[in-house]
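Q: Sequence in, structure out?
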Amino acid sequence: MPGFIKPQLATLKSNAPSGAQWIHEIKYDGYRAQVHVNSGATKIFTRNGHDWTKRFSRLASSFKLKSQTVFDGEIVVVHEDRTNFSELHADLAKGRQDRMLFYAFDILFHNGEDLRSKPQLKRKELLKELIDMLDPPILYSEHHEGNGQALFEAAARLNYEGIVSKRIDAPYRSDRVEAWQKIKTVQREKFPVVGFIKDPTGVAALYLGKREGKELVYMGKVGTGWSRTVSSEIRKKLDTVVSPKAKLTKPIKKPKATWVEPTFYADIEFHDITSDGLLRASSFKGLSRK
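A: Exactly. Output:
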């Protein structure tokens, strides 16, 4: 059995590729994961190679295979009919695992054979055979042939994150490649948090900025995308960096704001930026330090 394999990553594109040499899959909003099954003993690694088997023990115990296999896929939580990273993050914070699913979309190794040089479509054929032997929460990531743009437009209507298009003849390489192309229905970027509005247990909204050279300019606010648990976690972190005044280059009047040092960055999905320079239709996805 190999150790952790650095994952293949998709290249961001604005439009889905066309032609018979491409297949298209829904893009999941979750945690990338690599699953190593070794004759019934299973380990689950994060995208960066950290062993998170204990955090995903329910999923690990669901791989009832007597083979030696390495799967690539995404761990998700489905909320309101679509995968939701914020809900997954909240479940991890609470140690809750009952809603977690694993969507397998590739196979890298099986019973002594390194499959990475095999064409994408051949790998998916073997993957489906194996996943069909298992029950939920282990699922096969279906793909669609033909018009990728049509699938993308359907994903946009359903408020999915986007699609991933894959060349059927391509091998698997541990790098960011053109053979996998991700087309997002929304934009995603990290913005420094410059303030927040309190609510009784957490935050009602976050005020966001953006660094433009030496300036920190106001980009608007976000007030959706978190659960009560995540809201409380955000508040605890921001309470440690409260500032007596806004750190924006051009101060703004926000009577309800509690200003903070721009130490934390909010991961934000948004549709576009208005003519006033503010984020439109923004949604919170996560919080990290600078």
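The first helix runs from residue 57 to 60.
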